[in-house]
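User: Could you check the structure of this?
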Amino acid sequence: MDKKLSNPIKDIFFSKKVTKFVGRVQGKYELIKPGDKVLVAFSGGKDSFVLLHVLKRMQLIAPFSFELAAITIDTGTGIDYSPLKEWCERFDIPYILYETPILEIMNEKKRPGSSPCGFCARMRRGALYSKAKELGFNKLALGHHFDDAVETFFMSMFYNGMMKSMPPIYTANTGIQVIRPMIKVREKWIEYMASKNEFPIIDGEATCLALKDSEGVKTPYARAKIKKWLKEMEEEEPKLFQRLESAFENIECHTFFMKEFLK
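Assistant: Sure, the predicted structure tokens are below.
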């Protein structure tokens, strides 16, 4: 562990692959710059725990300074988020709990037989954008990883008829820059780091129980189906994700049907 790291972060196990690929993304896209005020979306899941600690480590050893804080969106499900607050205090990370009526709104507007996940995600993202802006942060860090990006790509292509994924950085309509420091990190590396540290994980499924128990709500299956398919594909071709990472940076638009790119 780097000598610059102080207690208690020195007691955290950091996956070399996670820090290596986060470093590559930071180096290539300059997601965090001197003087930035970075707000981490901290749901309490494995991805957000690992992201928070990787960025805290970066803050301690980077050759420049930036501010770091964590925020949890309380959708109104009754979950106790106090362990997250206590964890952040332990690592000297300012913590914000933002209470919202998202669950109430969703129960009012849900349609029988539909999945509420997309609607919920959009409302939570909107809450993050507005709160980050209100609190004076210029960067919002999300815990999406490379598996998320690949799954989104194939879901969009197979189910929506479009080719899109998740960029490392983009600007939201509020002017906040949204960054994904772990966008080239594999989910299995995150799982390994989280298990080694025994983080007090809040089960993501628990945040949706109130909706899943509601009458007429459809459980989403598309992402799970794509995840299973990709797992089978990777078993057949172990270098699948390495080639997909390369493909995501080597897109020959003129070979598709978009008139503006045709020569």
